[in-house]
Specification:
The chain is α/β, with parallel strands linked by helices. The protein has 2 domains: 4-206, Alpha-Beta Complex (inorganic pyrophosphatase (n-terminal core)), CATH 3.90.1640.10; 211-335, Diaminopimelate Epimerase, Chain A, domain 1. The protein contains 14 helices and 12 strands. The protein has a 6-stranded parallel beta sheet, sandwiched between helices. Strands 7-8-9-10-12-11 form a 6-stranded mixed beta sheet. Helix 2 (27-40) packs parallel to helix 5 (138-149) and helix 6 packs antiparallel against helix 7. It is globular, with a radius of gyration of 20 Å. 43% of the residues are buried.
Length: 336
């Protein structure tokens, strides 16, 4: 590990920097990455953001989004950038497996690796770590890193503020999750003062849908929603065949699980979707129910207590069956 003084010395002179984040990045992942990018370029650094995969269209308006390199589309360029990097910032993930094939390129790189993240149980691959499970989002930690660790709050301009606000907004459930603190609201106030247009950001992310996506949501709620009152649980499960009529794209399933959780009395909500390679599962919960425990124990995943995810190589039907079968194990917690 290196100390903060060493990192500050390294950042004092222009250098080659790569920023990367987890596969299928969400609002926090892209908001953090581009927020940090927009800060670092003001310091004269040569910076590229590499995403392991594509990401939702409703995040592609973020400032300097055209500078993002997608690994699956530009593999050789991505490898070259990693090989030449002096610093690699790893944002919103805590294990190199979360960036797919790009992970091995990062692992063998001689660059200094900086992890900024808020997930449990980080893997020991980094040289410097700014990490807290109490943070609402990685974007909150990026703000703290720039403003308080590096004492560069004056460089949080409109572009940086817009990206960080997006990350905080999306990962905090629009400021309604338990990890939203008074300090986070003060951070958000600073971002608005720096130029983040809160109303416009919300509109770009949440009021920027396609007709297909809206119709797909209607299909899920009408035809694929199951409610298990005996366990205070709701489930939405969709197969590959369900996806086809709606031309479902990256990001189109994001947030659907929250509709199941919004039902009065529901303590645990699940969204299970059959993809071409694996069956993916997203869990959301309220209160102290450990959604991450279920994902870690049964679905090769993890995450936060109230928001977690996993994946399985089993068939779609088997994953749905398994999820339903474990509910009795958690009955007492679900009915508390």
């Amino acid at each position: 590990m290196i100390d903060l003084a060493t990192l500050k010395d390294k950042l004092a002179e222009p250098c080659q920097i790569v920023i990367t984040t987890h596969h299928k990045p969400d609002g926090d992942a892209m908001g953090s990455s581009l927020g940090l990018y927009n800060y670092l370029i003001q310091k004269g650094h040569h910076v590229k953001v590499i995403s392991p995969t594509d990401y939702p269209y409703f995040l592609q308006w973020l400032p300097n989004n055209p500078e993002v390199v997608i690994y699956t589309e530009k593999e050789e360029e991505s490898k070259k950038l990693v090989a030449e990097a002096e610093l690699i910032f790893c944002l919103d993930f805590n294990a190199l497996s979360r960036i797919n094939e790009l992970g091995e390129e990062v692992r063998k790189s001689w660059a200094i690796k900086i992890m900024i993240d808020h997930h449990l149980e980080p893997e020991d691959f980094d040289d410097y770590r700014h990490w807290s499970i109490n943070a609402s989002s990685t974007a909150e930690l990026i703000y703290d890193f720039i403003a308080n660790r590096l004492n560069d709050g004056n460089l949080i301009n409109k572009d940086v503020a817009t990206c960080l606000y997006t990350g905080i907004m999306t990962d905090s459930g629009s400021f309604r999750f338990p990890n939203v603190t008074s300090n986070l609201h003060r951070i958000v106030a600073d971002l608005i003062d720096a130029g983040a247009e809160n109303w416009r950001i919300h509109q770009q992310v949440y009021d920027n849908t396609t007709e297909n996506r809206l119709r797909f949501l209607g299909f899920c709620l009408t035809n694929r929603l199951e409610v298990f009152r005996e366990f205070n649980t709701a489930l939405i499960s969709v197969s590959k065949e369900d996806l086809k009529p709606y031309d479902v794209q990256t990001g189109d399933t994001e947030g659907i699980v929250n509709y199941a959780l919004s039902i009065s009395g529901i303590k645990l909500a699940a969204f299970i979707v059959e993809r071409s390679d694996k069956v993916k599962l997203s869990l959301r919960s309220t209160g102290t129910f450990p959604a991450n425990e279920i994902c870690k124990k049964y679905f090769n995943g993890g995450g936060h207590r109230n928001a977690a995810g996993g994946a399985s190589d089993e068939s779609f039907a088997e994953v749905v069956k398994k999820f339903k079968s474990i509910l009795p194990e958690y009955k007492n917690l679900l009915l508390q």
